[in-house]
């Protein structure tokens, strides 16, 4: 069964992240049979969730957050035997990584453009 893990930092970018949770889940359901949303509560949660996604062979990880959260997720999947696909929605304040990757800086636009 194809599964995706959503990793959402609820404090990113002025606490608006959870407003997008349902939209993210609905989008992910178009591509994956199982959508597993994880909400971070503290530093390192995103790393631990991402490591779990690697070890359990999730097809993809979608991270909603700023550069700090993206950094944590990359740390969690880096140098593992299995590395899930990574999707990033710019939910933080700076979002430098997504700017460099030329990901749409409008959150709704970035979600609409997601394609697995
Ligand atoms: N529930 C939480 N409460 C407080 N801090 C958290 C929580 N979940 C994760 N964090 C921490 O918040 C940090 C900053 O998050 P993130 O970079 O996504 O948002 P940001 O404030 O928009 O920052 P940036 O300016 O880098 O875009 C993360 O590195 C993480 O350690």
From TrEMBL:
Its cofactor is Mg(2+). GO terms for molecular function: kinase activity. Residues 1-116 form the DAGKc domain. It holds the Pfam family DAGK_cat. Transmembrane segments: none annotated. InterPro entries: ATP-NAD_kinase_N (IPR017438), Diacylglycerol_kinase_cat_dom (IPR001206), Lipid_Phosphate_FormReg (IPR050187), NAD/diacylglycerol_kinase_sf (IPR016064). Keywords: ATP-binding, Kinase, Nucleotide-binding, Transferase. Belongs to the diacylglycerol/lipid kinase family. This is Diacylglycerol kinase catalytic domain protein.
């Amino acid at each position: 069964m194809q599964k995706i893990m959503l990793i959402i930092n609820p404090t990113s970018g002025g606490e608006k992240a959870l407003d997008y949770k349902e939209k993210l889940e609905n989008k992910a359901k178009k591509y994956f049979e199982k959508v597993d949303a994880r909400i971070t509560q503290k530093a390192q949660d995103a790393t631990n969730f991402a490591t779990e996604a690697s070890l359990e062979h999730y097809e993809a990880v979608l991270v909603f957050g700023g550069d700090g959260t993206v950094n944590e997720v990359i740390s969690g999947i880096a140098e593992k035997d299995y590395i899930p696909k990574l999707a990033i929605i710019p939910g933080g304040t700076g979002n430098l990584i997504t700017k460099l990757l030329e990901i749409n800086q409008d959150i709704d636009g970035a979600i609409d453009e997601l394609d697995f």
